[in-house]
Amino acid sequence: MNGIDFTDAATEALNQAIQLAVSQGHASCEPAHLANVLFSDQSDVAIGARVCAKLGVDADAVRQRLRRLLLKRPAQSPAPEQAAPDLALRKLVEAAGKAAKSAGDALVAQDHLLLALYNSDKNSNVAKELRELLSEADARKAVETMRSGRKVESKSAESTFEALEKYGIDLIERAAAGRLDPVIGRDDQIRRILQILMRRTKNNPVLVGEPGVGKTAVVEGLAQRIVANDIPEGMRGIGLRTLDMGALVAGAKYRGEFEERLKAVLAEVAAAPAPGVILFIDEIHLVLGAGKTDGAMDAANLLKPMLARGEIRVIGATTHAEYRAHVEKDAAFERRFQPVTVSEPSVEATVSILRGLRERYEAHHGVVIEDAALVAAAQLSARYITLRFLPDKALDLVDEAAATRRVQLDSRPEELDSLERRVLQLEIEATALKREKDSNSRKRLVEVQGQVRNLREQLAPLQERWEHERGRADKVRELQDKLEQLRIKAAQSRRSGDMSRAADLEYYAIPEAENRLRELKAEHEKAQANSASMMSRSVTEANILDIVSRWTGVPVAKLNEGERSRLLELPNRLRERVIGQDKAVEAVSNSILRSRAGFARADQPTGSFLFLGPTGVGKTELAKALNAELFNGDEKSLVRLDMSEYSEAHSVARLVGAPPGYVGHEEGGQLTEAVRKRPYTVVLLDEIEKAHPRVLPVLLQVLDDGRLTDSKGRVVDFTNTVIILTSNIGAQPLLRGGAKAEEEAQDAARLHFPPEFLNRLSAVCTFAPLDHEHLRRLVHKSIRKVASRVAEHNIHIEISPRGADAVLAASFDARYGARPVERYVENNVVTELSRLLLTGELRPGSIIHVDTDSQGALTFSMKAPMDVSPDV
């Protein structure tokens, strides 16, 4: 074999043959080993298997014959570490080298080795087995077809043979086999593509649209029209293949290898007999720069000449952003394409698409999808999943809801599972009791065995019923799959002109399967109506609501009685936390009620409020209380921005993100990123009057349209947020009091904020200073907070009315509101409790009574420990 150059694939085939000989314990590598490698079904260099596929020969039969030849060889034990090529294999390789030279090839390729297997006298057994199943003439003809007249001039040359088969996916074949989903509502785009493809020059459409709107589906619809001959006469019989750019680039280690592969693909497309082949390149912007290295051209530059001459027809697809960022920058590449805009379908059109695809999803998951679920998927995805596009997001909802139902169907029902676990638990206990000899254990054993018998009696009918229902569900799924296959076969029969078979399928087999499917579905619905069913196969509107809530965090599920009563009690619970501000509480509560009832405006935040008032009257506390009610006390879910940090003009960029080219652009905006990650939240913009005036125009779009565009061009949805802005403007007139105090505070706000800003708010709420009674309640609230903290140590605290008055007298200041009271309780009450605990005077179970002495000073007395077990 010296002096003979091999391609990479031929070298790999010979190496695998030697490895096969070693693994079989054979001392030498023979032609039979090479033949087994070339016809293997697990080898990348199995040219024989590809020849069989092209000729329609059973490759498995050839493999079995060749495998028997190896089994006849004597094996060594232990196996040799190396197997050298025997004389017959060396002569075979020499013959392959001569054949390559006479054919004008620079290197020996796999096909030379394959054909040499037929022509070696020493190889008679291998040649005989091959000739019986695969003649040499047929093999040679298949090899010539695979080569398409190309010569072997480089080590990677074989990667260019059948390039379209290797690096392209035949959409026509998939459409004919019924493996493509039906395309609904895209007739205009398909018609426009056909018009462009029929042009004499620049006949290359590029589909431009947002991700998920159905660009690839339009091309699949074109493939289905080609299969159905629903296209112009001049295009009938045309091919349509998707170019796999990933496979094209993968494994191209050496410079020029990628270009060689792509040129081979383009050459095959250009040389395809009339009416030719259309090449579909999804994400076409990737060809700009694909495979480019130092001194090498990218894919786009290889495409341009052929596109300009009209030698190939290409359909591209990309998004608006990628088209603008990549394709438009290369004017020479762009002008060879004609853009076709694929817009997002409406909610009504999406419902039609979902109805058209329902059977495919039902057959795949083995479930029944209700029409209400499809309508809900379209409407709710459009309303709540704002960062994605229809119909993709609606299809994902339906798919996940169906998958969730399928998982439930494949799992044992909770009722059955709990009984089986109880039986298992009792059986384990019985096994342990059998080892005991005392009378109590024997008595308990009898009880346990009786319980096991009773549970098994309950379990048997449930198990039988579940098996019956599961079998019925499996039958439905099998029938759905069968029905889909029958429809595909009927369509294939119509296209091939076999009208007799098509009539048999359409008028006998398909109606029979449909009737049986209807019977099974009716039986299942009847069982469900009688509440006798242990498993539900239906995907309902409620399932879609659950998925939307899980994805977005927005509670869109229908209100149950517990949630209804909780929402109706929301104002009262807010008043417990926010004392003395009933008007503001009412305004905020009403906005939440409208939202959860489904009557809020879809294009605005749930509510937007400006809270005016002096410090310490409950403005921030109301925002926290609302957040706690909506999120069950999760303080982290509150989006809080201190607007004093945005007092400079340049700090506006921090809200929506730094512009491109500036530090922090990739991090996004503090406001937009927080809401994008948690779209259902309370946004608190604290002390808004301290922000720079340029901040307010940014908020106008949020308050009016419920949306804000960040520095990356992404639209962030604010329609599920409650926006609360707090301000100390108007504090002085409110502190002075009087009949016109509230009006004066509103006037102060109108002087500071522009009218277009105030006009977009749901309400401007004034917070009046707290009076003596409100502050007394606040003292008790502060003590309750302390009590909840010391309860961890099993210590209880109570305060007398005189003690509360003493706290209030020592801390009250109308200018500072509630905060001095809380500070006084912290500094005096909590500090004294801490001292008593550290000195050991305070023991678990103690009750601390806070009162005053004759001088009005606070006193702390301990009662006897309660009848409460101390913390362990």
Automatic annotation (TrEMBL):
**A biological-process GO annotation:** cellular response to heat
Spell out the Pfam families in the cross-references. Answer: AAA, AAA_2, AAA_lid_9, Clp_N, ClpB_D2-small
Answer yes or no on keyword Manganese.
Answer: no
Name the InterPro entries on file.
AAA+_ATPase (IPR003593), ATPase_AAA_core (IPR003959), Clp_ATPase_C (IPR019489), Clp_N_dom_sf (IPR036628), Clp_R_N (IPR004176), ClpA/B (IPR001270), ClpA/B_CS1 (IPR018368), ClpA/B_CS2 (IPR028299)
Source domain of life is Eukaryota
The cross-references to SUPFAM superfamilies, in alphabetical order and at most eight, read: Double Clp-N motif, P-loop containing nucleoside triphosphate hydrolases
**Gene Ontology MF term list:** ATP binding; ATP hydrolysis activity
Q: Which SMART domains match?
A: AAA, ClpB_D2-small
Q: Which residues form the Clp R domain?
A: 1-152
Per UniProt, which keywords does this protein have? ATP-binding, Chaperone, Coiled coil, Nucleotide-binding, Repeat
Report the coiled-coil segments.
Answer: 416-537
Q: Which Gene3D superfamilies match?
A: 1.10.8.60, Clp, N-terminal domain, P-loop containing nucleotide triphosphate hydrolases
Which terms in the GO cellular component ontology are assigned? cytoplasm
PANTHER family linked: ATP-DEPENDENT CLP PROTEASE, HEAT SHOCK PROTEIN 104
Family membership, please give it.
Answer: Belongs to the ClpA/ClpB family.
Q: What is this protein called?
A: Clp R domain-containing protein
**Organism this protein belongs to:** Prymnesium parvum (Toxic golden alga)
Q: What is the lineage of its organism?
A: Eukaryota, Haptista, Haptophyta, Prymnesiophyceae, Prymnesiales
